[in-house]
Specification:
The complex is a heterodimer of chains A (159) and B (568). Helices cover 28% and strands 24% of the residues of chain A. With 159 residues, chain A is an alpha/beta fold. In chain A, helix 1 (18-29) packs across helix 5. The radius of gyration of chain A is 15 Å and the shape is globular. Helix content of chain B is 41%, strand content 15%. Chain B has helices at residues 41-45, 53-57, 65-80, 86-112, 119-122, 127-137, 145-160, 181-209, 237-268, 322-327, 381-391, 394-411, 423-453, 502-507, 518-523, 535-543; strands at 3-8, 17-24, 27-35, 218-219, 222-223, 282-283, 287-289, 297-299, 302-304, 313-315, 328-331, 369-372, 469-478, 481-490, 493-500, 555-556, 564-567. A four-stranded antiparallel β-sheet of chain B has the order 3-2-1-17. Classes of the chains: A alpha/beta (159), B alpha+beta (568). The interface between A and B is large, with 60 and 67 residues. Strand 4 (57-65) of chain A pairs parallel with strand 16 (555-556) of chain B, so a sheet runs across the interface. Chain B: It is found in: Cell membrane. Chain B: Heterodimer of a large and a small subunit. Chain B: It comes from Azospirillum brasilense.
Chain lengths: 159, 568
Amino acid sequence: MSILVLGLGNILLMDEGVGVRAMEAFDAAWSVPDHVSVVDGGTCGMDMLDLIASHKHLIAVDAVKTGAPPATLTVLRGDAVPAYFKGKLSPHQLGLCDLLASLRLQDEAPESVTVVGCVPMALGTGLMMSPEIEAVIPRMVAMIVDELAGLGVTATPRP
Amino acid sequence: MAQRVVVDPVTRIEGHLRVDCEVDGGKVTKAWASGQMWRGIELILQGKDPRDAWVFAQRICGVCTTVHAITSVRAVENALKLEVPLNAQYIRNMIQGAHNVHDHIVHFYHLSALDFVDIVSALKADPAATAKLAQSISGWPRNSTQEFATAQKKLQAFINSGQLGIFGSGYWGHPAMKLTPEANLMAAAHYLQALDYQRRMNKVVAILGSKTPHIQNMAVGGVTNPINMDSQSTLTLEKLMYIKQLIDEVGDFITQVYIPDVAAIGAFYADWTQYGRGVVNYLSIPDMPLDTKGTVFALPAGYIDNGDLANGFTPIKDFHDPYFEKGVKESVKHSWYQGGKGPLHPYDGETIPNFTDWQDDGKYSWIKSPTFYDKRAQVGPLANVLGMYASGHQRTQFWVNAVLDAVSGHLGSKVGVDALHSTIGRHAARAVRCVVLHEELQNQWKLLMENIAKGDTKTFNKPVFPKGEIRGFGFHEAPRGMLSHWVVIENGKIKNYQAVVPTTWNAGPRDEDGNISAYEASLLDNPVAVADQPLEIIRTLHSFDPCLACAVHLTDTETKSHYQVKVV
């Protein structure tokens, strides 16, 4: 029943890094049992396959593009999580969808996948986030805690 | 009448690589490659502690994080003239070797093979006939009827499932697809197997780098892996033996599957040795240092002028080679930056954005245009293999000849080294580089074990930053080609930082003198059978492994097709 909380995104591109920042904020505030791993996946590629394959449940924290206004928070579960190779050809810069599709081909996809997502506002170069996006990080952290609870895991506030 | 074909984006993420071609009479007559996104890493690093630069630099890219980490510490060490302990060199060499081998397998099978392999056709193949074909070219134990039948069932299930759409939306049935159903099934089954082997290789990176993606063990002055054969929290004998096992397993896949597959596809698509030549000035650098100063290397290389391996070759000798250091410049005449000073050396490089709009004869890209002694150069596995070949590196010569002999055998006529200057040649060269790197990876493992056995466990030399200004450069032969970072440090802080990345060399716009880049040149005279399905353009671009160095990784629930083709 191992669980992976995976922060995704590029912290050099402002709100693109929101997934990593939310994962870091969660890790700083909450402690979890040993069977839960909290990992900064950063700009993921094929090198994440092994990491994801070794867990039964994946909670990916990421910037999402859903068409909703910036700072909108979303939880995607089950079939709402895209797991397809996006497009005719696959050059570089693979996303979570491609990784999940590859794992299905290998019969090693996690049993459940949740995406805790936030629609970004600014994707310029910079280590900071937009104030609007930074403001929703605590809510994203709470959503991670809830998702874990749904999987039967109690996160404990760090002292 | 000429048509304009626009592929945007070529890379997966919107806002990266766009290519415009003019097609006339079924052939490309003009080409423009354009980076559509501004990469400002240089500005983020200004004022930072040089010891931390690699942490940020490895986030430039979503694929080759490791390579920027290694190149960044090398640049700072170079400025400090800091030596690196032997163990640290070997550990870095193994990380880079494993990362490169992983990347090459992924590129061939998962990112570009489907340009040549028709998945839908594979469903029509007879698994027994496929096994017979596969067994005729390799003794790989998994080339069995049962294995191919299982793979075929898996692909059918995939195509039948709604969400996993890749196999329903490719250029299947395109007239430029030529493999028989059996050859398509063989390649598709190996695609599935390759997913497993590339992962094993990446485990080596994860063990030595403490984590992947984004390794944690780099340091200016060495690596942070403590070596203690008896402590579980350090690099132990058990971990090193496990690494050896992983390396050996992947080696069998490379020699018995990857190399034979590339030779077979090369023979089926022998006409593709006529396309994609492009710029034949080749630049690559020596890598895998074998001493603490970076003066002796396992893998030699250098610059080749005008494709002339015999007389046009100049070796690049070491980490401080002034011939390399002085030769590199970048022009922004056709890029969306303020310019006017002519091409600048990276130490003096400027990154001042100045977007104007697309102008065919003016500015049309965010990528700068690097030159080597004022000439355009191609970088990448082909440049590297030709550089090692021209240097007299014996294992490279052995494997180049082995691949060319295998292709010649399939075709029944002799194919020479000249065939490598092409679209399909770049794939063959990548396979050669992969097997040579793999052999060297085994060697580096042995060197590390022997050095530890001598009682040397040192992995780090502490850097000391002087007052005043120092400059340095670091280079590394990354999967997509020669990567260099250039740093100017003043009083212990970064004053200027420039990353001259492989894709910049290959994909830059026209330079100061109007000369075109490797991407642009390689597309000229490419056939285009169906204007709105420009598979041939994609094939040539993919042979370079196009990758723009700044990665956006949104989870996207909206966009289902990752690029658009416009015919104007």
